[in-house]
Amino acid sequence: MDLINQSILVAAVILFISLLVSSFASRLGAPLLLVFLALGMLAGEDGPGGIVFDNYPLSYLIGTVALVVILFDGGLRTRIDSFRVGLKPAMSLATLGVLVTALITGSFAAWVLELSWLEGLLIGAIVGSTDAAAVFALLSGSGLRLNQRLSAVLEIESGSNDPMAVFLTMALIGLIEAGRSTPDASLLVVFLQQMGVGALAGWAGGRAMVWIFRRLSLEGALLSMFGLAAALLLFALATVAGGSGFLAIYLAGLLLGNARLAGLSTLLKVQDGYAWLAQVVMFLVLGLLVTPSELVPLAPAALAISLVLMLVARPVAVWLGLLPFALPRAEKLYISWVGLRGAVPIILGIFPLMAGLPNSTVYFNVAFFVVLMSLVFQGWSIVPLAARMGLKLPAAARPARSVRVETGIDSHYEAASFRVEAESVAEGTTLDALALPAGAHLAALFRAGERQAPEAAGALAEGDWLYLVGEGEALAEAGALFAGRVEREARRFYGVFTVDAALPAAELAGAYGVTLEPVWSGATLAEYCERHGRVALVPGDTVPFGRLTLVVAECEAGRVSRLGIRFAADDD
């Protein structure tokens, strides 16, 4: 009994310190996952904690369950229109990209570690996939906002490339155990089965979840627990059926998150807590599992493998994988660098240990070192690099808090609170003159903690709180009226004003002295932009227009609907 109590105490202290330290680390821009991994190492047998932990099956179980929770949460938060935009290039990276990365990295690993070709390829397969936990956490936790196409490619790739990495790892372990040197065609069948069954299970499971959720009468917390239980059940069923449980979970989350469901907002909030807890526990456990003193002899070789992976294998894989897709050069370069490795390579590194392969500790320690280098170099640089390359979009004006309004049926109405910021559009404006978007309605106004009658409130002042009810899109649009700094950043990025993309291109050209070729005389600005863009345009894309730059500000149904105008001086 004392041992159990002591174990609970140790676990609670480690978790408490991890969360406490993470609040300070985030202010320094440090990747939180790196913090949790490092704290796990400090608590381990070579650190001050001195905890001896080498239970690989338990670590695998914890890591797998945590990844299910994280991928389900990632799917819930992926918009279906983003999924459509990024699906094809992401799937190319998730299959061909992983294979190319594994071949290049594995060949180099075989040479530098003096292993057989198959053993080197096994290392390449283990570290070949990007990690959903790392990508989701670093993109959302850092506050970085990328355009819809770029963020979708990165997130979908990380959510769907696990089947390829698991397939390659298991296939190579089987070949090494059997003493064979070349694979056969049956491995391709296994891979197609993993992808096909996983996708089918995800689609069927997601539809079933939506159907069940619409008929359940559970309270918010119980509904969230039911969602987590359904996700774990689907993962297990898909895996037992021979498919990829990870792919199934991501797709099921996508379908559920894009359905109009009563209680979905509560599910998302609670699921966010589950996902963060899963990440913290998983990286702490994986940090505990490694023995830092065993990394030292391998450090020079492992560092070389990490550099080849980040600087050679990943860029080549991205270049080949994205050849059929005309993504802008800056986005390809950014995707090449943001090949974040996280929990998945470490968990895959456990497979050879559990199989009892020769050199299994080498595989695990190299995988851990690669993840460590990825989080240090790539994780720390993704935000400044995006800003430097002009890929960082201004932060969206968001309500301080929003909740879905429960109406007894599938609801798409929300209640949101907004604080009037200094130098915002709303400051100094009366409620009568405040142009709220159609579909957004004032519910209450508070000033200095007291509710105000709208007709007697006068001009709005900094610090006033407005509560609006309406559709989600209308409330998001209303946020720009109350934001100060965020709105100024948006004006710098998109231009001082925006225009309807249905405006004739010749009309804008005439107003600003831009010479247009005769072929554009009857075209709208939307048509001009879409014909000049090499890919489907999304907000944040730019199109040259003489001495002006047109910036896509809004899209509707896949078409450009509103454009910002930046002058040459604005771009200097």
From TrEMBL:
Residue ranges annotated for the RCK C-terminal domain, each copy included: 403-484
Gene Ontology CC entries for this record: plasma membrane
Keyword Nucleotide-binding tagged: no
Pfam families linked: Na_H_Exchanger
Keywords, comma-separated and alphabetical: Antiport, Cell membrane, Ion transport, Membrane, Potassium, Potassium transport, Transmembrane, Transmembrane helix, Transport
Principal location class: membrane
Gene Ontology biological process: potassium ion transport; proton transmembrane transport
MF term (GO), any: monoatomic cation transmembrane transporter activity
Membrane topology qualifier: Multi-pass membrane protein
Transmembrane region(s): 6-25, 58-78, 90-111, 117-139, 160-179, 185-204, 216-238, 244-262, 274-292, 298-322, 334-356, 362-383
Matches recorded under InterPro entries: Cation/H_exchanger_TM, Na+/solute_symporter_sf, RCK_C, RCK_C_sf
SUPFAM superfamilies in alphabetical order: TrkA C-terminal domain-like (SSF116726)
Places the protein is found: Cell membrane
Matching NCBIfam families: PRK05326.1-1 (NF003714), PRK05326.1-2 (NF003715), PRK05326.1-3 (NF003716)
Protein name per its UniProtKB record: RCK C-terminal domain-containing protein
Native source organism of the sequence: Crenobacter luteus
